[in-house]
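Figure S7 source data.
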Amino acid sequence: MANVIDGKAVAASVIEKVRAASSELEAAAGVKPGLAVIIVGDDPASHVYVSSKSRMAKECGFNSVQHTLPAETSQTDLLALVEQLNGDATVHGILVQLPLPDHLDADAVTQSIKPEKDVDGLHVINAGKLMTGDLKTGLISCTPAGAMLFVRQTHGADLSGLNAVVIGRSNLFGKPMGALLLAANATVTICHSRTKDLAEVCRRADILVAAVGRPEMVKKDWVKPGATIIDVGINRIPAPERGEGKTRLVGDVAFAECADVAGTITPVPGGVGPMTIAMLMANTVTAAFRANA
Ligand code: GUN
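C-alpha cells for the predicted guanine complex:
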C-alpha cells in the first residue's frame, strides 16, 4: 500500500508560516496583506471555493475583500473593478474566480490584473517568468505550486533522471506544472486529449500528475510500480450507495486500485485541494512583502 499524502497537514504547515509572515509585516510596516476575490454569477461550486478563500484569508490575518457581482455584469464593469483594485494600495492580491459567464472574456480580464497582484499566476508576465526559469520574482499558479511541494517532499528538490508525466495542458495547471517539474530537472511529458497511447506513456512515469477532470480515469495498469501519483481532479459523481440523490468526490485517479501499485499517492478530497488555498495565501503574503520592500 502506497504512502498517502496528508494534504490538509501540509497545507496547515504552509498556513502557519503565512500567518507568521503576515504578523511580521504588520508589526514591521503596519500593513496587512490584502486579498480581493471577485466572483461573477452564481455557480454553486465557485461560491464554495470563494467562501473558503475569503475565510482562510481572514484566518491568516489578511484584509479580505469579496466582490460578488451578478451574472449579467458587463465586461466594462468587470474591467473597471479590476482597474480600481489595481490602484488600491491596500490590495496586494486580486483573484477573479474562473470560469466566468460565457459573455465575458476571461482572458482579457485575467491579463488586466497588475502582474504584481496576480496571485493566480495567470498573467503572461508571470507565466513567462516561470517558462523562462525565473521562479523567484513572479507569482506561480497556486495548484501547481502546491502539487510541487508534495513532489519535493517525496523526491527532494532535484528530479534529475526521473520521468514526469502530466495529463492536462491548461494554463491554470498543466503548463505551469510541466514548467516547475522541468525547472527541477525532471524529464517532462505533457499529455492531453489528443495524446496517443496515454496508458503506455503514463506507465513510464516516476511522477504521474493527473489534471483532466475525468473521474477515476487513471487505472492501476497505467501506473509504474513505486511511482508518485498526484491527483488534481475533483469530480462529483453519483453515490447511490449513500442514499438516493447522494454524490461523492473522486479524483482523476482510481485511488484504491492505484494505491496498491504506487509508492506515494494523494487522496481526493484531502490531497491537492487544501494546498491550492494555502498557496494562494502564500502568494498574497509574498505580494504584500514585495509591495512594502
Ligand atoms: N477556478 C478553479 N480553480 C481556480 C483557481 O485556482 N483560480 C481561479 N481564479 N479560478 C479557479
